[in-house]
Design brief:
Catalytic activity: L-proline + NADP(+) = (S)-1-pyrroline-5-carboxylate + NADPH + 2 H(+); L-proline + NAD(+) = (S)-1-pyrroline-5-carboxylate + NADH + 2 H(+)
Subcellular location: Cytoplasm
InterPro entries: 6-PGluconate_DH-like_C_sf, NAD(P)-bd_dom_sf, P5C_Rdtase_cat_N, P5CR_dimer, Pyrroline-COOH_reductase
Number of strands: 8
Domain Pyrroline-5-carboxylate reductase catalytic N-terminal: 6-100
Structural class: alpha/beta
Binding site for NADP(+): 71-74
Largest sheet: 8 strands, mixed
Length: 271
């Protein structure tokens, strides 16, 4: 694949739109190289004014593109695959799916076993170029996997994993955004309880969480190593940590991730 090739994003919701904007912002491609589809094109008028192509004709868009990104809801996928099946050319097209709970085999069963499918799981931080994206495939060429990796590296970090871990990646990385945001929200509420105004408490909680994450990323450190630096004997930090653990902080987060992974695996089959 070359960057000059045409990209079709079928299903322009939050992830699809964030990817489109991110690719343009990173100068991976130009708006004119991307076609966005949605059942109601009136909802894409702002994107059209920015130079993106818009359409509600999925089959026609696929026929005029090379890189096909499936970004609809799981329960809409079978209808979409039925619409584009006749337009897919296995020698010309590479299909990328960002749909939770849908395997490469599920897609090839509808489009043909010789179609190269790459499964990708980004998260909503893709909108600011900070996604944690996981990639897997059971038949795509090394060249195509490399190019798709480069594409998503323009909007965050990428890791290649085995496909059987993709639903787990959904829970940890995609659902995980909400989990960490809820933790930040709870911290800001705690800040209000101890005397700060709401806007102050939120700003302090957000920056503290960002700093904590950067300590690990920039120094390749481990959480417990950094925790040890701020927990002194009989101190206030260890007292707070232990109270949180007594209330089930870690175990509730672990249980939530496990349940989300189970649910993610059922989204396509159970709707």
């Amino acid at each position: 694949m070359a960057k000059a090739q045409k990209i079709a994003i079928l299903g322009s919701g939050n992830i699809g739109m964030s990817l489109a904007r991110g690719l343009v912002k990173a100068e991976y491609c130009k708006p004119k190289d991307i076609t966005l589809t949605r059942r109601t094109v009136d909802n894409l008028s702002a994107e059209a004014s920015q130079g993106f192509n818009i359409s509600n004709q999925n089959s026609e868009v696929v026929a005029n593109s090379e890189l096909i990104i499936l970004a609809v809801l799981p329960q809409q996928l079978d209808t979409l695959l039925g619409q584009i099946n006749g337009a897919i050319d296995s020698k010309r097209h590479v299909v990328i799916s960002v749909i939770s709970g849908v395997s490469c085999a599920n897609i090839k069963a509808k489009l043909g076993e010789d179609v190269q499918v790459i499964r990708v799981m980004p998260n909503t931080a893709i909108a600011i170029g900070q996604s944690m994206t996981c990639i897997a495939s059971d038949n795509a060429s090394a060249e195509n996997i490399s190019e798709v990796t480069k594409m998503f590296e323009t909007v965050g970090a990428v890791i290649k994993i085995n496909e059987d871990l993709m639903t787990s990646a959904t829970a940890l990385c995609a659902c995980g955004v909400a989990f960490f945001l809820r933790a930040i929200r709870a911290a800001s509420q705690g800040g209000i309880e101890i005397g700060f105004h709401a806007d102050e408490a939120l700003k302090m909680a957000v920056q503290t969480a960002k700093g904590a994450a950067d300590l690990l990323l920039l120094q390749n450190s481990h959480p417990e190593h950094e925790i040890d630096k701020v927990t002194s004997p009989k101190g206030c930090t260890i007292a707070g940590l232990n109270e949180m653990e007594h209330q089930g902080f870690s175990s509730s987060l672990i249980k939530g991730i496990k349940l989300s992974a189970q649910k993610a695996g059922d989204l396509y089959t159970k709707g």
